[in-house]
From TrEMBL:
Organism the protein comes from: Bacillus aerolatus
Protein name, UniProt field: tRNA-specific adenosine deaminase
Cross-referenced InterPro entries: APOBEC/CMP_deaminase_Zn-bd, CMP_dCMP_dom, Cytidine_deaminase-like, MafB19-deam, tRNA_aden_deaminase
Keywords: Hydrolase, Metal-binding, tRNA processing, Zinc
Protein family: Belongs to the cytidine and deoxycytidylate deaminase family. ADAT2 subfamily.
């Protein structure tokens, strides 16, 4: 049975849930090579206090170790949120063949929303982009997370004022 994009995106969503459980922005990524998941990761920016510990970069690092090369030429990346400029650059440089993402990112999306670095022919590599796979589920995780963050901030501010 050939697994489809929704199957793999559900795995990325499971990774995103791990991030959310840690109080991180719930973003998850997996990398698939020839039908096998070779890497999985989730956002750890708050935990590490490191700007580059995005789910995609952590997954790329793990995948490179697994295959023993910086080239991930036949790999597919599944991520719950549209890649940012930094992650899009890493995707291009690692030669990932295909990127599938869930929710669009109106603030930093560089796989079609603000620009499309991944399919820009000026680079020496392009990745096929598939947008909006399980978009509603991926987007609602983020919306719910940020709604809760705002609620907590408001609650905390209210307690301080009392």
């Amino acid at each position: 049975m050939k697994k489809n994009d929704e199957f793999y995106m559900k795995l990325a969503i499971e990774e995103a849930k791990k991030a959310g459980d840690l109080g991180e922005v719930p973003i998850g990524a997996i990398i698939v090579l020839e039908g096998e998941v070779i890497a999985s990761a989730y956002n750890l920016r708050e935990t590490t206090q490191n700007a580059v510990t995005h789910a995609e970069l952590l997954a790329i690092e793990e995948a490179c170790k697994k295959v023993g090369s910086w080239r991930l030429e036949r790999a597919e990346l599944y991520v719950t949120l549209e890649p940012c400029p930094m992650c899009s650059g890493a995707i291009i440089l690692s030669r990932i063949e295909r990127v599938v993402y869930g929710a669009r990112d109106p603030k930093a999306g560089c796989a079609g929303t603000l620009m499309n670095l991944l399919e820009d022919s000026r680079f020496n590599h392009q990745s096929e982009v598939v947008a909006g796979v399980l978009e509603e589920k991926c987007g609602s995780m983020l919306t719910d997370f940020f709604r809760e963050v705002r609620r907590r901030k408001k609650e905390s501010k209210r307690r301080i004022e009392e």
